[in-house]
Amino acid sequence: MEFGINFFPTVGPDDKPAGTYFDEALRLAELAEDLGFDHVKTVEHYFFKYGGYSPDPVTFLAAVAARTRRIKLVTGAVIPAFTHPLKLAGKLAMLDNISKGRLQVGFGRAFLPDEFDAFELSMDESRPRFAESLRACQRLWAEENVVWEGDFYRFGPVTLLPRPYQRPHPRILVAAAITPSSCEQAGRDGHGLLLVPSISKREKVQEMLTLYRKAYAEAGHEPGGDEVHMSYNCYLSEDAGEAHAQGKEYSQRTNSVMVDAVAAWGQRRSEGYEGYEKIVDRIAKADFDRSLAENKVLVGTPAEVVERLRTIREWFGDVTISLQVISGNPAFEESVRTMRLFSEQVLPHFRDQD
Amino acid sequence: MEFGINFFPTVGPDDKPAGTYFDEALRLAELAEDLGFDHVKTVEHYFFKYGGYSPDPVTFLAAVAARTRRIKLVTGAVIPAFTHPLKLAGKLAMLDNISKGRLQVGFGRAFLPDEFDAFELSMDESRPRFAESLRACQRLWAEENVVWEGDFYRFGPVTLLPRPYQRPHPRILVAAAITPSSCEQAGRDGHGLLLVPSISKREKVQEMLTLYRKAYAEAGHEPGGDEVHMSYNCYLSEDAGEAHAQGKEYSQRTNSVMVDAVAAWGQRRSEGYEGYEKIVDRIAKADFDRSLAENKVLVGTPAEVVERLRTIREWFGDVTISLQVISGNPAFEESVRTMRLFSEQVLPHFRDQD
Ligand SMILES: [Ca+2]
Ligand SMILES: [Ca+2]
Ligand SMILES: [Ca+2]
Ligand SMILES: [Ca+2]
Ligand SMILES: [Ca+2]
Ligand SMILES: [Ca+2]
């Protein structure tokens, strides 16, 4: 299994000035490399405390690339609907070169109605926009003299500069929240998968994984071992009581900023997002103790978290885990402690099984 | 006077792999800080060797921000027509925070027909698009709950996250190639100015500067001393003959990639770009020895370049100079030497006059 840190900010100016946020996040990213984690990841969101400090994951990851030498950089995810593919493919190719080939590109459809509204885009078009943009980026990276005649973009012949460092292009990952057919498509296309196990039942995640892996294998793609990424809120302490109390507080805070961000789903339905109103409902009713019992958060002592991860591996197989150690706005020193305890007492149990 | 380095790449994959380009550029950016330069700047261009390795200046400057502590970071320029203002303002605000307030944002209209074609934008709309996007970014940075109802964008109320580090926002600079009224407008608005003295006669540049400074003063804006930026190709050697021979070679190469990039102007006219066909003509006919005689390139021994800069200061006053030390694709060591000679033997002559 591989492990990394997912920078999912849940703060606004009244919680933490952005200068402090980025200073701390860059220090934690350097620490992640020093502690032997495999990747640094960050999100794309706008306007809300829920991810809003990170409207452009490439900008943050470029800074991380300049401060590190080994660790992989993962967008989790970029939203192609909000950036022209010529621009998106170009800046990702820059990042791939700046990092000397450490980039993996997660693409997402986005799901917050307020974001689509601000960019004047219809959520109903989200699926075809996503498919077209992802494919356009892939061709711009892999081919020269690209002529693109799609439903949303027409350009070419153009040859993207710079050419990506990785040939034909960086690994592509597809964010799939709850839609099994998206997983199947990603598998057929040979892309990786970004999953959020906390918002679905275990059986649902397993169903999505089975479809994905079957389609991936049937299409003849080579397994890389790090195709499937899953993010978990994570809080560790050697004191079990403290771990649970603080882990609960930060999980609840994370949840409460998510409730604000998804509020618009109360008055919105979109054919491209069937079932999303249920997610919203589930988030509003989320209960920390149940989440903990269902292994949807990695909270506890190191020994406890080792057990949780063994169970997760039994359920889902050899997946890549992204730890959310800043969500809920813990003190910087608490995030450092969680990462150190994980590196020292949890990671070693999962390194040899690779 | 202030001095910095403008990273204007003129290479493609057959000249230099992009991994090498960014590795060298980041090392030169660190060196710029260590040698006492005031800023690092880079361009936004696509597809051609003329700037095409830099489709997103923010990505490169974020990496520079992570490797430096003091030096200012300047976009020279971002093209708002190619990025939604919510996205553009957001990532620039991230960079301002990552760099702890070292950002200055140059905005440009772009002028290459192939770039507008690829983004499916009419050049005729370039001026109103530019004005609307710049103003939208400025309001998104300075205000909360922004409602925008423009000709090209409608959104809000939204509060941009993250808030910029500098309040109300980073200094804004406006790229003005040949249009005096753009300079006047920039002055009225209290913005800085990015000028390219190599493409105009000295008297034309002086006319633009006079209009700018008059409008700036009459509108009651505080002079900061670093409002006016000018870029110059620069090559130094202690051997005058070598400096001229190599400086000429690199200037001619720079010119030849520019000729390729502007070729589409041969069959294009746009009401927003009156007179641009003449620039193209001028570039095609450019003669290095005449450019040198007219102080449009900073080439020579350090003593010679000191004299050239004294003349430039007499002509244009206390401006900020951006040295193009990689354009034309000199060897890395030659760029290093130019920067060292400039820092040691040229800079000291212009520090005390501030
Ligand atoms: Ca390190
Ligand atoms: Ca593995
Ligand atoms: Ca507490
Ligand atoms: Ca340094
Ligand atoms: Ca000054
Ligand atoms: Ca030579």
Provide the descriptors you would attach to this structure in a database record:
11 strands, 8-stranded parallel barrel, TIM Barrel, alpha/beta, 354 residues, binds calcium ion, homodimer, two-stranded antiparallel sheet, globular
What is the H/E string of chain A? EHEHEHEHHEEEHEHEHHHEHEHH
CATH topology of chain A: TIM Barrel
Q: Output the structural class of chain A.
A: alpha/beta
Biggest interface pair, residues each? A-B, 57 and 57 residues
Low-confidence stretches of chain A: none
Looking at this structure, what is the CATH superfamily of chain A? Answer: Luciferase-like domain
Query: Helix count of chain A, per DSSP?
Result: 13
Distinct ligand kinds: calcium ion
What helical percentage do the residues of chain A reach? 40-55%
CATH architecture of chain A: Alpha-Beta Barrel
State the separation between the terminal residues of chain A, measured CA to CA: 6 Å
* Number of separate domains of chain A: 1
Cα Rg of chain A: 19 Å
Protein name (chains A, B): Flavin-dependent oxidoreductase, luciferase family (Includes alkanesulfonate monooxygenase SsuD and methylene tetrahydromethanopterin reductase)
Organism (chains A, B): Actinacidiphila rubida
Pfam families (chains A, B): Bac_luciferase
Domain Luciferase-like (chains A, B): 1-316
